[in-house]
Amino acid sequence: MWAAPDDALLAGMAAGDRDAVVAFVRRFQRRVFGLALSIVSDPALAEDVAQEAFVRAWRNAAAFDARRGSVAGWLLTVTRNLAIDAVRLRRAEPVDPEAL
Questions:
Q1: pLDDT per position in the chain (100 positions), as tens?
Q2: φ, ψ for residue 66 (rounded to 5)?
Q3: CB of 20 within 8 A of CB of 4?
Q4: Cα angle at 38 between 35 and 42, to 5 degrees?
Q5: Of 62, 99, 60, 90, which is closest to residue 78 (Cα–Cα)?
Q6: What is the number of other CB atoms lying within 10 angstroms of the CB of residue 15?
Q7: What per-residue string of b and e applies to 57-77 under the rule 16 or more CB within 10 Å gives b?
Q8: N or C: which terminus of the chain carries fewer CB neighbours within 10 A?
Q9: Which helix (H) or strand (E) holds 66?
Q10: Are 74 and 53 in contact (CB under 8 A)?
Q11: Are 58 and 21 within 8 A, CB to CB?
């Protein structure tokens, strides 16, 4: 399964193949976490973003269209969007004026 193309792993995920899920995560975990970390600058938050990116990939694997781009590009776009949303949410937290 390791030598399988990215789109085959994604199709395996869509079909519920546990080995495909494991191989997919292992193949992309460093890139996904690295991108998330570069955007959010917080390792714990980057882990949360990366986990959510893989959950979304799993949920939407059947909807992936290879004609629109690569699996890696699609997954990293999902990661980027989630990371930006996480940064926006973090900034939206009110700050106690006395803490300033």
A1: 457 899 999 999 999 999 999 999 999 999 999 999 999 999 999 999 999 999 999 999 999 998 999 999 999 999 999 999 999 998 766 777 787 6
A2: -65, -20
A3: yes
A4: 110
A5: 60
A6: 10
A7: bbeebeebeeeeeebeebbbe
A8: C
A9: none
A10: no
A11: yes
